[in-house]
Automatic annotation (TrEMBL):
Assigned keywords, A-Z: DNA-binding, Transcription, Transcription regulation
Protein name: Transcription regulator (TetR family)
Keyword Amino-acid biosynthesis in annotation: no
Organism field: Methanocella arvoryzae (strain DSM 22066 / NBRC 105507 / MRE50)
UniProt-listed SUPFAM superfamilies: Homeodomain-like (SSF46689), Tetracyclin repressor-like, C-terminal domain (SSF48498)
DNA-binding residue intervals: 38-57
Highest taxon of the lineage: Archaea
Organism placement in taxonomy: Archaea, Methanobacteriati, Methanobacteriota, Stenosarchaea group, Methanomicrobia
InterPro entries assigned to the protein according to its UniProt record, in alphabetical order: Homeodomain-like_sf, HTH-type_TetR-like_transc_reg, HTH_TetR, Tet_transcr_reg_TetR-rel_C_sf
Keyword DNA-binding tagged: yes
Ranges of residues in domain HTH tetR-type: 15-75
């Protein structure tokens, strides 16, 4: 058995403590909301001295983006795994949309944090550094969809005029809006509206029809 060096052990302990702090912040954000949480609250939840907390995170916004990036990474993993199971590009994009919906259902807190970060980024309430971190993470997550569109153009299932990055952005933003709308669905008295699943499947089918290469099927 190879024993790690003292430096390696210390680095591992540092990473574990950092993760435990993010866990604590995540629990508090999910219960109280980001704006109502103080660094003192996080230190208490993580069972750390406040001074120790600041050795890892300089402010609450740094904790905020750490939680958001967890969500972005998880979303990217789920979309990537779903797309990897498909061969055709058009099928990959559809599978990615379904995975995004599944993410929102399975991890509503992370989905909400992503929407919140997007809103804060748009209105300029995030610092430039944190905003850049968020946008870079979104860009990395988007690349999986960009590649799926490229595959679709190459295999003929997506129309050749579809510009990969613009098409990927369209798919992601439309899917985000659709999922947000589906969460607001309710049943009215005596007249049930469409279910969340129906809204999702309808929208994803419309998006698929918008980008598919219809010439291939003539």
């Amino acid at each position: 058995m190879i024993v790690g060096t003292t430096a390696e052990r210390k680095e591992k302990e540092k990473e574990e403590r950092r993760a435990s702090i993010v866990d604590a912040a995540e629990r508090l954000f999910s219960v109280k909301g980001y704006d109502s949480v103080r660094m003192d609250d996080v230190a208490k939840e993580a069972k750390l001295a406040k001074g120790t907390l600041y050795l890892y995170f300089e402010n609450k916004e740094a904790l905020y983006i750490a939680v958001v990036l967890r969500g972005v990474a998880l979303l990217g993993e789920m979309i990537g795994a779903a797309m990897a199971r498909e061969k055709k590009g058009i099928s990959k994009t559809y599978a990615g949309g379904l995975a995004y919906y599944e993410f929102s259902r399975k991890y509503p807190f992370y989905f909400g944090m992503l929407l919140d970060a997007q809103q804060r980024s748009a209105v300029g309430t995030l610092s430039e550094t944190v905003r850049d971190e968020f946008l870079h993470a979104k860009h990395r997550a988007l690349q999986t969809t960009v590649e799926a569109v490229r595959v679709g153009i190459a295999d003929g299932t997506i129309r050749p005029t579809a510009e990969p990055r613009k098409t990927a952005l369209l798919l992601m933003e439309a899917t985000t809006a659709m999922i947000r709308t589906s969460h607001e669905v309710h049943v009215t008295r005596g007249s049930p509206t469409a279910t969340r699943d129906e809204i999702v499947y309808f929208t994803l089918d419309m998006l698929r029809q918008a980008i598919e290469n219809k010439e291939k099927y003539r």
